[in-house]
Amino acid sequence: METRRAKAVRRRLNRLWARGDDEGQLPVASEYVRKEPGDVHGWALWGNTLFRLGRFSEAEAVLGEALELLRHADPDIGWLLAKALSHQGKTAEAKELLTEQKHISPSSRLPFLGLAEVALQEGENEQAKSLLREALDRTPDDDPGAFYETALILLAMPTGKEQAEGLLRKAVAGMPNHSLSHLLLGALLEHENPPVADALIQKARRLWRAPTDFDVMLQHTRELVARSQGGDSD
């Protein structure tokens, strides 16, 4: 379970991110790890901050150190490390790591989710679909963030739209203040149910606190949805 101190650090990082202070996040995360080297959540915060900044090789180094310290027994760290590897084109290393994590933590959804992403990168859509089923079988009903993450992967698959929509509805219900869930579901429903889509997008606009301009993000999300359906964005 995440410690109270780690939650406070996460809130501080989120405030810095919302202000657009990307570089200001790093000393907060790294200082916390120096003070609490045994806290897995601190390492995850540090590694994920580097990942969000696009500093993938540094994220790999931090998360690799964490995994060694934790004796390879944390699926969150393993998943984040695999993502950092994949973004550097090291898909074979990512797959090997996630396969190992799958055997170490068989009840965790994360190794299966990561392997599904790798399978999609390699064009193995049926394998990705099977791995996502394994991930969803291990996803508790009270984890709407996991539904959002899985929906994003489903939208990269040729036949994933319907299932992604169902998961996004659960994400919106479980995270009423999560702007990205409202935005993605709204973009997904724009052609088949414009009034509902507009309400979702307007709510996302009201909730939006990120440094990226909302309309830029809206266009990016529409393009993501259009690609998932084999079409072009408006």
Walk me through the topology:
Blueprint: H1 4-18, H2 22-35, H3 40-52, H4 56-69, H5 75-86, H6 91-104, H7 110-121, H8 125-137, H9 144-154, H10 161-174, H11 179-189, H12 194-207, H13 214-228
Helix pairs in contact: 1-2, 1-3, 2-3, 3-4, 3-5, 4-5, 5-6, 5-7, 6-7, 7-8, 9-10, 10-11, 11-12, 11-13
Task: Describe this entry's structure for a reader.
The chain is an all-alpha fold and about 230 residues long. Helices cover about 75% and strands about 0% of the residues. The chain has a domain at about 1-105: Tetratricopeptide repeat domain (Serine Threonine Protein Phosphatase 5, Tetratricopeptide repeat).
The second-level CATH architecture of the domain at 1-105 is Alpha Horseshoe
Main beta sheet strand tally, sense and closure: none
What gap, in angstroms, lies between the N and C termini?
Answer: 44 Å
The count of strands amounts to 0
The fold-level CATH name of the domain at 1-105 is Serine Threonine Protein Phosphatase 5, Tetratricopeptide repeat
Task: Describe what is shown at a glance.
With 234 residues, the protein is an all-alpha fold. The chain has 13 helices and no strands.
Spell out the key features of this protein.
mainly alpha, globular, about 0% strand, about 230 residues, Serine Threonine Protein Phosphatase 5, Tetratricopeptide repeat
